Amino acid sequence: MLQELNRRFAIGEQLKFEIHPSGLVQAKINTDKCSGSFFLLGAHIAEFQPRSQSQPILFMSGEAVFEFGKPIRGGIPICFPWFGPNKRDANAPTHGLVRTAVWDVLESKLTASGVLVTLGYQSAPFRLSLTVVFGETLDVTMNVRNEAATEQSCEVALHTYFQLGDARRATIVGLEQNEFRDQLTGQIHAAAGTGIRFTEETDRVYRGTASVVTIEDEANSRSIRIRPRNSYSTVVWNPWVAKSQRMSDFGDDEFERMCCVETANIAPHNWIIEAGQSQSVGFEISASSASRN
Ligand code: BG6
Q1: What share of the chain is helix, strand, coil (3-state, %, to 5)?
Q2: Is there a cis peptide before residue 268, judged by omega within 30 degrees of 0?
Q3: Which of 159, 161, 181, 182 to mutate to test the pocket of ligand 1 (most atoms within 8 A of CB)?
Q4: pLDDT tens digit string along 79-138?
């Protein structure tokens, strides 16, 4: 399988498929623009670091489990076709079915922007594709086609974990004018008018669009910019102390060095896709090393 993947999709030293120590198939990207990696399990982007940056953009837990059928704690898990617990079936897995499924490679090529890879997965009645460009920026597009004869409802989140120098000194800017649902209380809050700071467990779904969401990582003197496309929900999450302790695949103090900003379409902004039609959601992530510029 590995030989076949490399024969069809490797691009010299710039894109290679390997077996991760866990036994999972992992692709490694190494170009003059960036380094990165992804797993076929979950089409999971695990690493991304532009050459201009001295540190990774994506956070990966030191306790992450790499195992067939289990989600990976860090990088970019894909939540689909539902976000969070399933509303009709309490036994169904959190965040849907595709982050723990093995995807196929559909295409790879070198473009002016970087290494482009498209992965695909069929989660009936949906056909999914994820196109990623590893360049100076990380550009991700997920496309969902409804192959059923009737319209279908679904939710999606690109659940990105970002690495921070110190979550206590970070600010998320760009969602000041968006109302949000506090996932911990179920309450809807009016737009706060100020940037988001982390001082406790934070689990919010911001509603409406944002043209750019910036993570001001003061401790690392860097800004990470997320430019979402076709996204009407943004999840902001930090598990803080007690929840970190409850998660077996996450270090007790790792909450201090990460946060999630998730580009999403979640109820009431879930997708309704007509029979035979498609929807897509995506983002571009870039970083600059001086904060507040
Ligand atoms: C976030 C949710 O997106 O994901 C949180 O808003 C959840 O409620 C978190 O705890 C992690 O979920 P999981 O299933 O990966 O542990």
Answers
A1: 10, 45, 45
A2: yes
A3: 159
A4: 999 999 999 999 999 999 999 999 999 999 999 999 999 999 999 999 999 999 999 999
Kindly give the distance from the C-alpha atom of residue 84 to the centroid of ligand 1, in angstroms, as a whole number: 6
Query: For the chain, first and last CA: distance in Å?
Result: 46
8 A C-beta contact, residue 186 and residue 204 = no
| Selection from 91, 50, 95 nearest residue 76 by Cα | 95
Q: Are 45 and 58 in contact (CB under 8 A)?
A: yes
The answer to whether the CB of 205 falls within 8 A of the CB of 178 is no
Domains and CATH numbers, the chain: 2-289 (2.70.98.10)
Segment (H or E) for 281: strand 278-288
Q: 37 falls in which pLDDT band (50, 70, 90)?
A: very high
Beta-strand pair 258-265/233-238: antiparallel
Answer whether 129's CB lies under 8 Å from 120's CB: yes
Looking at the CA of residue 262, tell me the nearest atom of ligand 1. Answer: 3
Cβ 172 vs Cβ 236: under 8 Å: yes
Q: Is the pLDDT of residue 278 over 80?
A: yes
Pocket probe for ligand 1: among 183, 240, 246, 265, the residue whose CB has the most ligand atoms within 8 Å is: 183
The token pair that represents 259 in the structure block: 């946060």
